[in-house]
Every structure is written in structure tokens, then in C-alpha cells.
Amino acid sequence: MSQSHYKPLDAQLIPRFAGIRTFMRAPHVTDLAGVDVAVYGIPFDTATSYRTGPRFGPEAIRSASALLRPYNPALDVDVVDTLSIVDYGDVPVSPGDTERTYGQIEEALAPLVEAGVFPAALGGDHAITLAELRALARKHGPLALVQLDSHGDVWEAYFGQRYFHGTTFKRAFEEVLIDPTASVQAGMRGSLYGPDDLQLARDIGFTVLTTDELRALGAERYGELVRETVGDRPVFMSFDVDFLDPAFAPGTGTPEAGGFSTAEALAFVRNLRGVNLVGCDVVEVSPPYDNAGAVTALAGATVMYELLSLVALART
Predict the structure, then answer these.
(1) At the fourth CATH level, which superfamily is domain 52-91+106-315?
(2) Torsion angles phi and psi, residue 49, rounded to 5
(3) How wide is the angle at C-alpha 218 spanned by C-alphas 214 and 223, nearest 5°?
(4) Extended strands (E) in the chain
(5) How far are the Cα atoms of 45, 63, 69, 213, 262 from residue 230, in angstroms, in the given order?
(6) Alpha-helical regions (H) of 116-154
(7) 3-class state of residue 1 by DSSP
(8) pTM of the model
């Protein structure tokens, strides 16, 4: 018997305002046979340092994703025909206990990684990425990190806690989950605690681009730089929605003025074609602070769609 190829509901048969809310209205499936991509939620925001709310991010992104259609004209790929996509549901979390939640995420992701299914996470605050990296590094070894964000997340601790959304990639480096010399952090901006804050990531080995540097570089050259840096290594892509200017993404926990438009962000993501993506996430969507019909959630959903488009393009 041939394996199933999972597709979203047909919007010409069932209106987009109808049906259970899953990502792109893909079926909610936990049997991994015949699955290429599993989108899953991690509704956790205990590790936020300012405004909470990303625990509601997966739900909001799913709702906004009902607007997405199968064919991506910018990359000339039919995401739905190329990939068998399911919504895997939400993984278990323990509000108030970050380290226990890490164990739950790792346990939940293990079957996906073992089956070779591409894992695509909807956050949740940025602390969740550490558990995703742990699960993937067990199979692939140290990963190249490609991060679009306004913060480097390489501080040592917050409020005496080593596991926080601002410490994720310091811990990932220490645990040898990523290879910083093959990794690029881009979009850094905003006020800092001191003149050495940006240098922390560079000292670890990351290629770091501030917002001004990235804007001057442009999307096409950014893609070239990433490909040169990561080579043929397995890549994890992490997109923090505060990469966008608050005018385009007000619904996030630590907004920073002077960021990018949604159109610019999509161009940066599209120019990552050719990298060996093995996992990704979109994090820090905080619906309580969103407005204008969930504009931030729509941005997050569209970025995830573009990331899945890259996966589809690689398989064509």
C-alpha cells in the first residue's frame, strides 16, 4: 500500500474561515509514515525577560496561516505538492519549569528526528530552541545556526538563571550543539548593557551582522555570505519575530525600534536557498500585544511558509 501524501484542506471546497486550526490547515497527524514535514507548537514562555504571551504564539500563527496557499511564486515551488505536511500538534510543556520542559521537548522530537521528518517549530519564547538543537544534534552532530533576530541571546544568565531566552546560544555553544564558526547571527540592534555585548558572540566565533550592516549588505549578498559560512553542514534556522520592526510586528516580548519590514525579512529568508536545512523555528510571537488583525502572527506564519518553501525547493 502506498504511503499517504498529506495536504491541507482545499480552500475552494472548505472556506478558509472554517475547520480546526492547524498550520496551513494541514491534517493533525501523529503517525509519521509518509510525512516529510511536521509543524508543531511549543507553547512556552516561562523564560521571557519582559513581556509574556508567546505561549499563545502557536495558536495565533496557526490561525493566521489559514491564509497561506500551496504555490510560492517567489521561489516557483508548490510547497504542498512537493512536501507531505502535517500539523503534529503541541508538545507537552511545564509552565514555570524550563529545564523540565526541555526534557519534554527533546522526548517529543526524538521520533521526528529518528524518522527523518523535517521538524518545524512554532514558539514559544526563544529558550525553546536549545531543546530543539539538542534533539537534532544527537543525529547530525554540531549544527550551523542561521539566526535572524534583534538579540544575539548569548548572555551568561538572567536573574541568576542560566536557561533563559537571552542565554540560548551561549548554552548551545557550551553543549557543542552548534558550530559558531559556521553560524551567522544577523539583525542585531537596540540598546545594550555595555560596549562588549555584541563582541560576546564574535568572541565565541559567530559571524555577527548588526541591522545596519545587514541592511547595507542586502538580501542577495546575505544569502551568499550564509552559504559561504555554513558550507554543506546541516543548518538550523531560527527566526525571532523581533527581527521585524515593531511597526510590522508589535506582538512580541522585547521589541526593538529600527528593524526590518516584513517584505525585507521574506527576502532574507528566500535568499537562503541552497543551504542544508534540517530544522527551523519561528519564535517570540506574543498575541496579547498584537494588533491590526494579528499582523505579527501573520508575519510569523508567512516566514514559516517561506522556510518550508526552501525545504520544498531543495527536494525538487
Answers:
(1) Ureohydrolase domain (3.40.800.10)
(2) -105, -10
(3) 90
(4) 37-42, 71-72, 77-78, 85-90, 118-123, 144-148, 184-188, 207-210, 234-240, 276-283
(5) 30, 33, 30, 19, 25
(6) 128-140
(7) coil
(8) 0.95
**pLDDT tens profile 92-136:** 999 999 999 999 999 999 999 999 999 999 999 999 999 999 999
Judged on CB neighbours under 10 Å (0-12, 13-18, 19+), 135 is buried
Q: Give the mean pLDDT of 30-42.
A: 97
Residue holding cell 521561489?
Answer: 75
User: Distance (Å, rounded) from C-alpha 15 to C-alpha 290?
Assistant: 24
Residues 252 and 285 sit within 8 Å (Cβ to Cβ): yes
- HSE-CB for 141 with a 13 A CA cutoff: 4
Percent residues over pLDDT 70 in the chain: 99
What kind and span of H or E run contains 307? helix 295-315
Reference 296, options 63, 39, 40, 8; nearest CA is 63
CA-to-CA distance for 156 and 70, rounded, in angstroms? 42
Tell me the pLDDT tens digit for each residue of 217-266. Answer: 999 999 999 999 999 999 999 999 999 999 999 999 999 999 999 999 99
Class of residue 304 by CB neighbours under 10 A (exposed 0-12, middle 13-18, buried 19+): buried
pLDDT in the model for residue 1: 40
Q: How far apart are CA 6 and CA 4, in angstroms?
A: 6
